């Protein structure tokens, strides 16, 4: 029997939700509810809802083609919203009323509302409610009557009628395909791989509709290597209905010939015979169904084939292949690159690059391509629509049109995407459409979206599951079906493809609206229920008033800024107007980033409100009336850093599930009675008060807490008994725990402090733990128990009394460990690695990736066990500000990649053997930067020499750059110290630098030496790959001997501010040299002036700050090969000698800068080869040159 996919009408679950609310409403709970029941209004409502429910699937199918049906659904949805609002109001009245008997002998009830009841009750309210219900029921009954006139029938959801867009064949024209070669090769590699032990492997190509999954499968299927590999090949288009009989029959017909069997057993028997001891490839294209039992039976014949047989399936749902087989490989198909998109578009639009219109249409076409966001089917659709059409106006119209407005007979992308939506379950359709409130390209957070769904009653309760878990399942299913995808910019966030966003917007209709600019306000109508806004921060918020007035039943008022604006960027000239509008029905209200300092008392009238976000606002007080908002589930106060106190009666918010106060640093303590908030799922922070009613005991009743919890001001816990009553061990869903004591405080009993921490032992599901400011000397034993097998991150910070680190080495999953500010700790010994009381000892720190020590001012000794290898997976080791630490580091760290030693002057730098190390920082202080990848950085350190001597011991082939600066101890550089892989050597501000022998190195390409005052001789040995040498401000450097022989491939040489440097030696400069800078080198100036510069390959010469020459250049002074010459700041230069210039037969550019005495030129004519003479700054010669009117001569006075 064919499987039926789950899709039901969008409104189906909405009707069910209202029916459930009707069923759960106690008609005796309030006088109003009883009156509604007595007048049969509730029963009439129920009957109408049931009648519409029966025809919703048919109506949803027909609305695309029939505008009257579409209007019927709009009217129905509007009425459903009204009914839902009224039922929620009745439920809230009932929940907040306290029934009391009038007298002991009377069975009738009257209703006394709590003093601060959220719904003030009066006869007028009762009349209004009854009248409203009457109107709603009348409207619904009228809608029910219309269904027959519209021909709506009671029937199950059908498959979409138009499936012509779907590819049914395995044939493909490869010339029509762009940008899929890498994908093709990746899939073929998987198909040809025989290393899997399973007889049958399943490979799935996953992705959004229209991305090209079938096309890629066709390319692979027809490849010669695949044809040669597989003895049997079959291609079947499964499509939306998975029928094992039809699919089995189709495979047999692909393998042999026509098959007339209709019995599944006979079909499978024959299929097994055909596949036995054969290597086969079966492609199942466009698979949707993931029912385990159907697939288990279907796949039995395929297990008879040879090892290496494969099933290749394409799907929009990544959950499908895991059902098909456990041995599966996922291939996520990505969008096309911009260049490939343009090529594909050009192909299908037939726009020729030789066309007269190409220049005009190219700009529009690229915008159209951008609109398609890399989807090949969209590119083909829009390209085909413009085929042979060169009218600019038509192209502009296509660009501005929505994809849903295109002619249906010419667009394949519309049904291709709509079919994905069609088969969504009803509850997921509503959740997906809700996301139309987000702007295009908006990056949204999973947990945040789930909270919004919950606030809007889009998450349907399931027994024994929390709403959060149900919402998480919803979200994961939408990801699996490719409606959402991970953001490429931030892996923790998600995005919707633009066409998916268009799909959501299309089905959202009038009920959702996003304010992008205030000019759109007139589009809001009475049916609008959900409004999001992303306005210019400089616009006054009062302008939103005009947008809001049209929406009289608004449920959502949501901020969706792309990034958090600092508060004050959105101004509220007056906050009262918001609460005078039609806000009574609000479920979601976000004032995030508003410049709002307080809320009016009328906030308590928002009885439907489930979600309130005041994050990033300067609010300093919350009204007590907020506690009347009985239905509030989520209260976000992140980074409200002026808020000093929560409302004292917050415990009355009994439905509160999420209280986020991260970054609300001014909060002094928690309100009393937090233990009454039994439904709290997230409590980001608990600030322990000094009283029993707001002490740590209040946490004891909150066993349902999930995620992260920070408990601060633990100094207010008096004894271990109070800590025990917090029942931290029962909070099995808290996976991140932060325990904080105040930075400074009274002198404490260290034993009491330890006992308190002992009783704060968390549940063993914990993943991350931070202990900050703990005042004991010893940590409790639970901290290192191997039973905490999920702990991956651990931080110990500012535990200043601590004398011993806990035994952490046997935490099996610990990956990141930070020990900071343990100012009393002197020694880390063997207890760090193994717990003496544990009988099961493994490799210490077997999973640790990162270890950091910082601000350990008394730490003197780090014991490293010799008998065992510790830290086998350590990638990052950082030791900072440990001034008295001495001894050695671990001898062997096989996978260490980053090592930082900062402010540890007594630490002997016997560096570990670390063959994968590629970032090494050794500094005397924390200032200046750290090493970049593939760099060694030695800075402000007295131990630079010992660090250099240890570099060869590291045995790392990854270092390319060595920088040594501000090291004042004696340093003698030898090529033996330098890693073989080194390419760049930079040394500066090392006052005692010397070279003990001629520097030799086979890989060095660049050397920079700056401000090394003691350097007199820079001897060079063999440097065969040196390309660039720069020496500056070495005031005692006399020479660089053997330069020409040592660096035969040198291309650039710079000598600056080296006044004692007198020559380049007898061997002259290497013939490879092309560029030379000489700046403020007096003796070198004299030598060149007297002897001339001999370098036959030199093409670029820059001379700066020559103070002695009066005429330049003389004949034979400069090499004839020069192409450009720059003379700047020649303070005494009087004459430009053209005889010398005319010998430079290749000279093209001459630049003269700031030569204040230059006023003569020896010849009238410049060399013919010069194309540009630039005079910059003060120069008397300028006036003479201006008279020549030579276009080659240019002047710059800037």
TrEMBL record:
InterPro entries xref list: Apaf_helical, LRR_dom_sf, LRR_R13L1-DRL21, NB-ARC, P-loop_NTPase, Rx_N, WH-like_DNA-bd_sf, WHD_DRP
An example Gene Ontology biological process: defense response
UniProt domain NB-ARC: residue ranges: 181-347
The keyword Repeat is assigned to this record: yes
Gene3D superfamilies noted in UniProt: 1.20.5.4130, Helical domain of apoptotic protease-activating factors, P-loop containing nucleotide triphosphate hydrolases, Ribonuclease Inhibitor, Winged helix-like DNA-binding domain superfamily/Winged helix DNA-binding domain
Record GO terms (molecular function): ADP binding; ATP binding
Record domain Disease resistance protein winged helix: where: 437-504
Residue span(s) of domain Disease resistance N-terminal: 14-98
Keyword terms: ATP-binding, Leucine-rich repeat, Nucleotide-binding, Plant defense, Repeat
Organism, scientific name: Arachis duranensis (Wild peanut)
Name under which the protein is recorded: Disease resistance protein At3g14460
All residue ranges annotated as the R13L1/DRL21-like LRR repeat region domain in the record: 696-820
